[in-house]
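Sequence design from tokenized structure. All designs in this work follow the same two-part layout: the structure record, then the generated sequence. An example of the structure record is given first.
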């Protein structure tokens, strides 16, 4: 074997270069390689334990890693560190800077490993950015003890093996960092088979805001990340995408070809926003959306019918799991009618009973409490509009008030016949039945349980509207 003829010094260099992915395989090649690898084993385990799943932390005696600048400086002096990071949780970037002074970065004139890293960055060069101008802004941020968007974005050029990426809470892109991020994505897509390209392996991406009404993450900020070549799952709390705020919509050149699951929690989006998102996710299988009115949102009311109809138009041919619920609504539900007949492959479906009330109101001439069935035949078009024939698992979310017993009655009044003719795939139904629900609603829930006993459908009553727990694709 030609490799074994090399001197020990060269073998040691080769072994060090294989850290971390190929190290163990190389060490087991033969006795000589194992002997040469032994001095690296302890360091290998230490780096994997410390950086495999990385998040910023505060430690005494100058051992803290509190911000992007700290990690950049560490990687500049120990490049192998970057190759060990598989889960990059950057959520609390710079959160502790007021409690402890950050490590200073050298000036351009003083030079050093960090300055050389910026000066030699292929990403800055490809993006057409002046590295000195970029570094100066980064250096000023560090001196002023503030979060650095320039530092946080540059750090993303250094992570070839990250599989899960969580952005900083303070993420606020600007023109310069957007150019760099677009270059990172472009190079990752061109160099998918090359292990040296940063972010090539990212399969799960998360924003890290809270679910509060005051939080906002423009969905357009997620666009570049969703276009990464290995992206599978997106968790986006507090995303905003509205017709009246064009800057919040995803840019047209970011196509998420590989994205399969999107979990949009406590978000504020209208039919234009969700259409924009789905146009850029052509192979999405799972969509979960919790609506929440944001404090600074120009829109307080929500047209849930148009929202779901937009999902049907853009993704009805390929979605298999869909959840649309209401977390917090400051305005009103805009009247309308939904039709889910265009969902061809949906197997799991969740929505609020407010949606059923919308269809009742439209069908009954704007009265929300019809006194007689809307149809008398076994083929019930009212049910067809609300439950696609392919659905196996159905979840209905409600507080049990506002005459929602009428919604349940409209769906299940001819359940035996409808199940046999229209909903043969249906196996499981979850219905909210909280303790504070109206008595009429509780009675209707109990009736559905009784009526379903000989249909082959399991009906589960849930004590809290948020307690419905299907196993959704893309969840941890």
């Amino acid at each position: 074997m030609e490799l074994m003829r090399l001197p020990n010094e060269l073998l040691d260099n080769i072994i060090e270069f294989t850290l971390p992915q190929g190290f163990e395989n190389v060490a087991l090649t033969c006795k000589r390689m194992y002997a040469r690898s032994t001095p690296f084993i302890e360091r290998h385990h230490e780096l994997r334990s410390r950086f495999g799943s990385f998040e910023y932390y505060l430690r005494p005696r100058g051992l803290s890693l509190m911000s992007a600048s700290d990690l950049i400086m560490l990687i500049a002096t120990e490049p192998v560190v970057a190759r060990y990071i598989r889960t990059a949780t950057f959520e609390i970037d710079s959160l502790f800077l007021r409690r402890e002074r950050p490590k200073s970065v050298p000036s351009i004139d003083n030079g050093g490993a960090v300055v050389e890293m910026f000066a030699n960055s292929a990403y800055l060069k490809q993006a057409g950015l002046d590295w000195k101008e970029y570094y100066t802004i980064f250096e000023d941020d560090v001196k002023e003890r503030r979060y650095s968007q320039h530092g946080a974005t540059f750090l993303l050029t250094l992570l070839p093996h990250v599989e899960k990426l969580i952005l900083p809470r303070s993420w606020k892109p600007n023109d310069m960092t957007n150019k760099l991020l677009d270059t990172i994505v472009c190079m990752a897509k061109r160099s998918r088979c090359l292990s040296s390209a940063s972010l090539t392996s990212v399969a799960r991406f998360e924003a890290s805001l809270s679910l509060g009404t005051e939080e906002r993450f423009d969905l357009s900020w997620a666009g570049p990340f969703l276009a990464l070549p290995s992206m599978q799952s997106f968790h986006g709390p507090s995303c905003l995408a509205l017709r009246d705020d064009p800057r919040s919509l995803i840019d047209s050149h970011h196509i998420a070809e590989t994205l399969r699951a999107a979990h949009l929690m406590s978000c504020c989006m209208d039919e234009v926003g969700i259409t924009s998102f789905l146009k850029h996710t052509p192979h999405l299988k799972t969509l979960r959306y919790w609506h929440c009115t944001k404090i600074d949102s120009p829109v307080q009311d929500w047209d849930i019918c148009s929202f779901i109809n937009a999902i049907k138009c853009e993704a009805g041919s390929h979605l298999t799991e869909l959840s649309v619920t209401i977390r917090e609504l400051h305005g009103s539900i805009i009247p309308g009618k939904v039709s889910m007949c265009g969902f061809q492959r949906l197997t799991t479906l969740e929505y609020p009973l407010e949606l059923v009330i919308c269809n009742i109101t439209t069908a009954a001439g704007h009265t929300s409490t019809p006194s007689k069935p809307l149809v008398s035949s076994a083929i019930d078009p009212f049910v067809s509009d609300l439950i696609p024939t392919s659905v196996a698992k159905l979840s209905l979310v409600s507080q049990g008030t506002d005459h929602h017993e009428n919604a349940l009655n409209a769906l299940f009044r001819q359940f035996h016949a409808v199940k046999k003719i229209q909903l043969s795939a249906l196996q499981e139904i979850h219905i909210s039945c909280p303790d504070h629900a109206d008595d009429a609603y509780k009675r209707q829930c109990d009736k559905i349980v009784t009526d379903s006993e000989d249909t082959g459908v399991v009906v589960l009553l849930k004590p809290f509207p948020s307690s419905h727990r299907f196993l959704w694709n893309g969840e941890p």
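The mean pLDDT is 87. We note this feature because it recurs in several other targets discussed in the main text.
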